[in-house]
Amino acid sequence: MSFIKSIEPKHFHAEIPAKPMGKYVHFITIRITESYPLFQTDGELNKAKVRAGIADKEPISRLAMFKRKQSTPERLTGRELLRNYQIGDWEKCDYNVDFSKTTPDCILYGFAIGDSGSEKSKVVVDTAYSITPFDDSHQNFTLNAPFENGTMSRQGEVTSRINSQDHILPQTFFPSIVTLKDPTESGFLYVFNNILRTRHYGAQTTRTGRVRNELIGVIFADGEIVSNLRWTQKIYDLMKNAGQINLPDPLNEDDVLKAASQAISELMSGEYISHTDFIGDSFQQLLAEVKSITSDETSLKAMLNQANTESSNYAQKYIIKSSEKGKKGKKASAATE
């Protein structure tokens, strides 16, 4: 069943292959904070000291959004949809506890269940870095936990439930490339839809962490492309040269998106791989087509069912049968001892 008309079928596999076949699709994404999220480890915001740009060699500290901070919320969005429409073995899945091994989530994003089997993720996400420096991208807030009456004291006793925490500021931009290896058409749409739908990232996702994903392009290639860091540094160079970085003022979103498109196009012109780029007007046509599929319940369910059928077939061929062979081999070896 075909869903997309604006992409040639040659970019997709008819079924999920067992071995890497050299087809990649890269989702070119700008993650924009819209509240005060927390991307932290051991109570501190994650950051890294790196060069400001490719041309600008000054070292600066940047906020870092680790890969699992990006991939986990997106795969949970997909799992939620599968449960909502009761597609596949959704009842068996319990994230980080038990996996069905057959759903699009398990096959595309991977799983590991000790001796019971594992599957390597076909979705590759690397650490993303803020365009602006750490010092201009975060703020420290004092947090408290008041009593029932809304005050910090009761019967003359003042509570000690006061703490402080660094938060990432709104309008902080994280360029991020999400890669799907050896896509089928429905697998491509499944991952695309997860990126578009996911709205919360980082810690305390029920109260903060609002992030909007602005996709500016999709690139099909026969290999991996530039890193998030290099793309971020190129954007920084372009915006600085254009006088668009005026710290501590936040960056203008229109300027960021324009520089991001120019940066990825210039970087791709220097790549040594074969690639087909959907950026600018060609991407807007593709995005409109994808939205027409994912926003309509009938077509969305058809896409999810197709993705589940492909994942289940893959699991039966390469995961469940191999697992059964392994168990038989262990029994045979135990019997001869």
Question: Could you explain the architecture of this structure?
Answer:
By secondary structure, the protein is α+β, with helices and mostly antiparallel strands. It has one domain (9-145, 161-320). The chain is 36% helix and 24% strand. The chain has helices at residues 67-84, 104-109, 185-197, 228-241, 253-268, 281-294, 297-336; strands at residues 24-33, 40-41, 44-45, 47-51, 59-65, 111-112, 118-119, 123-125, 128-133, 138-144, 153-154, 157-158, 162-168, 173-181, 211-221, 275-279. The strands form six sheets. A five-stranded antiparallel beta sheet has the order 8-14-1-15-16, with helices on both faces. Strands 4-5-9 form a three-stranded antiparallel beta sheet. Strand 6 and strand 7 (118-119) form a beta hairpin. Helix 1 packs across helix 3, helix 3 (185-197) crosses helix 7 (297-336) and helix 4 crosses helix 5. It is globular. The model is unreliable at 326-337 (pLDDT under 50).
